[in-house]
């Protein structure tokens, strides 16, 4: 340890030097403040013993300059003084002194003071070094964040906006958003959007957004169905993310007519259908686990379908909205969220966010706040280049027995085959929805004989699918035949689906159509997508004609 003695009296300097060197300290000597400052710039001094009364620059003038030079690191100044008045002692401390010792010197007291201040200086130097390291790492992290933020901004915020169709708001709790909202249009005008909430928030939560966005945009451009998109996203995130991470998501497709919604819902809070006046018409719970939890064999791709009136609004939000806490710790909750939605016709996402923040009394945001409102309006189709269609007619025939109904997904396989035909791929989503509805109606109502009225009861969906699973597991003999015929001259595909069930009379079909307004499935959906829908006399066969033009 190096000690600087500053005193204009040679005897004092020699005495202090001898005392300190006996204790194995290194010593530098200066005769006034000016010399002391020069030596400080040349050597790394640990303690300064500073006389008060000196020529050229006295101790009171020198002490502040020493402190200024030392900066953030503690450099102790022990004043050497023969003064006895309290005012002088107070001034020594005020100008930067840390301690003082009286002349003549007491070796034991001086030694104790030096050891005490030396410990403090050591701790100060260690803390300052750690501070420098933290600043270095912080600056490195900031630079890396700037780079990553630039990549995320270009990858995610370059999406086209659809102001008439969708109002959305994302408020990240940190620099990076664990929530994401994606939207795009298919080649035939269907509007797709995805609201996702990755586990946690910040950079770790946001890493899944890049591959998810790439998959979403690519598949929408191909006209893939919502179930296809969910399946591909799940497979990718299951492989990419660690076991404790997943993505709660709602994937929505609004048909080009604005009258039909297809939805895959996994792990997000309830989704609401709201009319023009702001009244909540329907509350829809998530049907599946979040993306990235189940492997391909366990994953469920089934989707919900809703028929809606023009101007109906679909509202979805992440749990950051309903879990925002007020000053008393009580959450905003689903009840307040619904009341907020119904408080104002045509409410905006900003209105909702303002209500949430007012409830939290603008406390520090703990989670990402994300909400999207989709307006069910017909698409404004853009003129695109001529589409080329296959000139070769063909037919695809599939016949399923009971065992195949239990273990296969014929709709997906048929759609995959049809999508390889020139001109058909852009219509994949509509064809999947059309064929899926027709097949499921044949299986559920025709073969299994389950009534749609179950879905109108409390917890009806759960009971419906419980009965469906039990009936399917006990199925012994049954058949469903699917025929798809492509007519190149009319540019249309005719689907013929026939089951071995008892069939339906026309009144029953109309009744099922009415019920579809409540639970979103049935004849009306088929009529909306297909050019024509017709049934045979007993009602166990449906013929659908879908135009590619």
SSE topology:
Elements lengths: L1 E5 L3 H13 L3 E5 L2 H10 L4 E5 L7 H12 L6 E5 L4 H9 L4 E4 L4 H50 L9 E6 L7 E7 L5 E8 L4 H4 L2 H13 L4 H15 L6 E8 L5 E7 L4 E4 L5 E5 L19 E4 L5 E5 L1 H4 L10 H11 L5 H11 L9 E7 L18 E8 H6 L2 H10 L8 H20 L12 H15 L4 E9 L4 E8 L6 H14 L3 H7 L2 E4 L5 E7 L2
Parallel strand pairs: 1-2, 1-3, 3-4, 4-5
Antiparallel strand pairs: 6-15, 7-8, 8-9, 9-10, 10-13, 11-12, 11-14, 14-15, 16-17, 17-18, 18-20, 19-20
Integer average pLDDT: 85
Helix content: 40-55%
Give the overall form. elongated
Number of helices: 17
Strand content: 15-25%
Q: For the largest sheet, list the strands in their spatial order.
A: 2-1-3-4-5
**Sheet of most strands:** 5 strands, parallel
Give the number of DSSP strands.
Answer: 20
Structural class by secondary-structure content: alpha+beta
Unreliable parts: 506-521
What is the C-alpha radius of gyration, as a whole number of Å? 38 Å
Q: What is the terminal-to-terminal distance? A: 90 Å
Task: Please summarize what this structure is.
This protein has 17 helices and 20 strands. The protein is an alpha+beta fold and 549 residues long. The strands form four sheets. Strands 2-1-3-4-5 form a five-stranded parallel β-sheet, with helices on both faces. A five-stranded antiparallel β-sheet has the order 6-15-14-11-12.
Please name the defining characteristics of this protein.
alpha+beta, 5-stranded parallel sheet
Please, could you describe this protein's structure?
With 549 residues, the chain is an alpha+beta fold. Helix content is 41%, strand content 22%. It has helices at 10-22, 33-42, 59-70, 86-94, 107-156, 203-206, 209-221, 226-240, 319-322, 333-343, 349-359, 402-407, 410-419, 428-447, 460-474, 506-519, 523-529; strands at residues 2-6, 26-30, 47-51, 77-81, 99-102, 166-171, 179-185, 191-198, 247-254, 260-266, 271-274, 280-284, 304-307, 313-317, 369-375, 394-401, 479-487, 492-499, 532-535, 541-547. The strands form four sheets. A five-stranded parallel beta sheet has the order 2-1-3-4-5, sandwiched between helices. Strands 6-15-14-11-12 form a five-stranded antiparallel beta sheet. A five-stranded antiparallel beta sheet has the order 7-8-9-10-13. Helix 1 (10-22) links the parallel strand 1 (2-6) and strand 2.
